[in-house]
Amino acid sequence: MDTPTGLDFEQPMLEVEMAIRQLQQQPQNEASEAELITLRKRWNEVTHRIYSQLTPWQIVQVSRHKDRPYTRDYLNLAFDEFVELHGDKHFGDDRAVLAGFAKIDQYKVMVVGHQKGRTYKERTNCNFGCAHPEGYRKAMSKMQMAEKYGLPIICFIDTPGAYPGVGAEERGQAQVIAESMFQMSQLRTPIICIVIGEGGSGGALGIGVGDRIAVLQFAYYSVISPEGCAGILWKSHQHAPKAADALKFTSEHLRELNVIDDVIEEPLGGAHRDHHQMAAKLKSYLVRNLARLTSQPIENILEQRYEKFRRMGVFLDQQDSQPVENGTAV
Fold it and tell me: pTM for this one?
């Protein structure tokens, strides 16, 4: 039997998993069953201890785990139906952005999300989740369609950042992200945004303006990736763990800073260990908040959405303790 592989800090968990697998291959009797129960309890204890003490850099590693569920996995597991829509009607179809009609319980919705791809071929086709301008134009087009038909919008965010190539910049990458954020701020339909893995830079913000913003427990949401921050400040990606500590981008940090509304708990050991349980938790959150939002007048939703983002970036100056917004006392 091959030794299971995982992240460096997961090795104590993997050793217990290997012992469990070896014991399961042996003939079962009362003694072996009792030992299995003991080993499973041991795995739960070790996993809980490790995952309750993760550093920000380790959380980044979990958010990038190769087995972590992506947008298409949630569409298959949490939604009853999904009909994908393609193209931006200007340039092409960006595979890094999924969009289409979906149904979850009694709610018909529009889903827009980043997709990284599972195999190397899929990842290459999806640009590893880094969307081009046509991806955000596709997202805007489908969200406008959702507004037209009165459908709530669900956005799944999972990207290290927007695609940084020359061609993307020539086709207006920065402009289209700004347009998408502006449009989302005014759409007359409820919007729920969930960071399911990486939430990096403007690539995440491009579909991140909503009425409820949630982050999975071991995901991150940041103005820049830790490697990018380290490259700018210390001229080396080797300082990424130090940058991760300084950026305060974990789910708990974000909730304390009021950047997000909710943290969605992951299964023990992370979402990559149990896709079905994670999808069930995600579905429960979506259905609960769809019920809450669809029962409100749209004017109230728009006003609350505006106030939510106006409050971000307001802090207290240490000298006079007056609220300061964008460097100006208010």
Answer: 0.88
Total length of the chain: 330
Q: What is the DSSP string of 169-209?
A: HHTTHHHHHHHHHHHHHH-SS-EEEEEEEEEEHHHHHTT--
pLDDT tens digits, one per residue of 129-176: 899 999 999 999 999 999 999 999 999 999 998 988 899 888 989 999
Which range of residues forms the domain containing residue 24? 8-53
- Are both 20 and 145 inside the same structural domain? no
Report the alpha-carbon distance of residue 54 to residue 47 in Å, rounded.
Answer: 11
Is 94 inside a domain boundary?
A: yes
- Do 40 and 177 belong to one domain? no
Residues 177/136, Cβ–Cβ less than 8 Å: yes
The reply to whether 43 and 112 lie within a common domain is no
